[in-house]
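Recap quiz, item 2
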Amino acid sequence: MNKFITYLIFIIISAVIILGLALPIPDIPALGDKARVLYFHVPMSWISVLAFFMSMWYSIRYLKTRDINYDIKSFSSAQLGFLFCILATATGSLWAKFSWGSFWNWDPRQTSIFILLLIYGAYFALRSAIESEDQRAKLSSVYAIIAAVTVPFFVFIMPRIVESLHPDPIINTQGKINMDSSMLTIFISSLVGFTMFYLWMLNLKIRIEKLIYKKLSLIE
Amino acid sequence: MLLKNSFLVFKKDLSSELRTRYVINSLLMFVLVTISIIKFALGDEKVDNEILTGLLWIAIFFTSVSGLSRTFVKEEEKETSTALKLSTGTDSVIIGKLFFNLILTFALNLLILILFILITEYQIKNLSGFLVVIVLGNLGLVSASTIIAAIISKANSKGTLYPVLSFPILLPLLITVINATKLASLGVETDKLFGEIQILVSYFVVVTVTSLMLFKFIWED
Amino acid sequence: MKSIELSAENISKSYSGKIIFKNFSINLKSGDSVSILGRNGSGKSTLIKLLTGLIASNKGKVILKVNGSTVPQNLWYSQIGLISPYLNLYDELTGIENLEFFCSLRNNSRDDMKEKIDFYLNKVSLFDKRNEPLKNYSSGMKQKLKLIFAIINEPGILYMDEPRSNLDAEGIDIICQTAEEQKKNGILIVATNDTDDIQLCEKSINIEDYK
């Protein structure tokens, strides 16, 4: 079963990469072929947010149960989230270079992902500054939760400050999906494929961390 | 009972601070140094309010992240927290310390504002709106800094960690309050700032409630 | 007279994978006294912290009952007196300010409190020094003040962790008196590596047996 899922993820992601670059896409004003980045950029951004909230969820579970396994899960999810956050920033910057003329121009979306990067960074900095495992688990859980309750404020704040030039994520202002069916199929498969990939990596990461903890005889 | 004990904790912190002047003295110097740097950097240049407001909040932010951690760090360093833990519930500790930091921040901000206006000729066209925004901004700032202070008091390398942990948490507040302060100083009516004020109030409420819920996990050893 | 019960079932504690002690169980009720023995660094203080609820155990449970009903852990503090090397009072406050602060937190009425504080200060002969900040106290005087802090609210359970440290003969005498007093109404737990302290208690436990 596990093997089957591994192969499935491999096939979906390979297909997305090949078809995403090879198949023609409909003419989108001002974006053109550059729109292909959304096959990769949107799933990365989605996973970096998903991983962040998964990490927060496991933090709450940890504080409730004091089971160190939840801390391992929270930490592993944060590490993967950080990785995907960097990938989302990189793909976004690349696209910004060719569409807006520079890699970084403090567009609200760029600011938001920058803050997510900062939160991940602060979370790891805090973890490395605490020696005892229980304390580390507890305090970083608390921090993750506090960070998570302040993140939604950006949703309200950002549009007030500057208007974003960022293309509407999936659905445009009229509420219609302006992708044709082949593009939509690739996009959705990419989203599903990368999410499965994240969950698969998370599972691996948790198993590795547990082995390390076992070796240090921190868990049984 | 809760309020009485919170007040006692606040009073204890205040009188021990007034006696040692540990935080106050260094923070006063910090404010002076920061304001002087701003003065030297600006020279005689006439700068518009957009930049001045940013500078003002840089001074406020760094003053608070260099002083507000002290109230918790001291309890840990001097190992007095155990005595406090054995004498009162967790809620009164966090509320008392919140109050202490609030008073400290208000006092320092008053000083920063006066010095800042004196040296930069900062014009405030809508004073009442400006003050409302500054006070609300400080409420959120203190609330978030206090709970982060409690976290870092248990960690190593406290000094450097404090700004690192506070900044991402405070950023939504800072962006909003800088914008609102700028608008008020330019003379925008207070009721036009209603959106910003709403965000500032809800930020304060959300962070304070979360702090009260999570503090017990930090406070136990 | 309130009756108090403290029971621990198979509690274990480890730090960074190192076991401090495991499967420690104890059952105490009013009138009981026990001394905990062990070398320096053997985990006596950790055990005391666990029993006072200052830290949580990895496994097992500590239960505190007053008059038969279980006290939730966030209210344990009202039943506990602790004197230990890792508990300090405020250096910049005077002796009387320290005691007044902690007493009023515990909801004592003003007159009651004044009377009690004066009584105890006289008992340990610190009354003359009451208006001096703690930073001017010697370590023995601080230890005496910590003793007052521990017993002033007549705790159901009194924990003494290395109670003799820095004390002179008179101080040690007061410790012994306090211990006798405590055994009449409550539970006494002494962590020590001093053989004289063992005689204060009826039972004695060696923490090395739980490694």
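Residues 181-215 of chain A form the longest helix (35 residues).
Residues 32 and 196 of chain A are 29 Å apart (CA to CA).
End of item.
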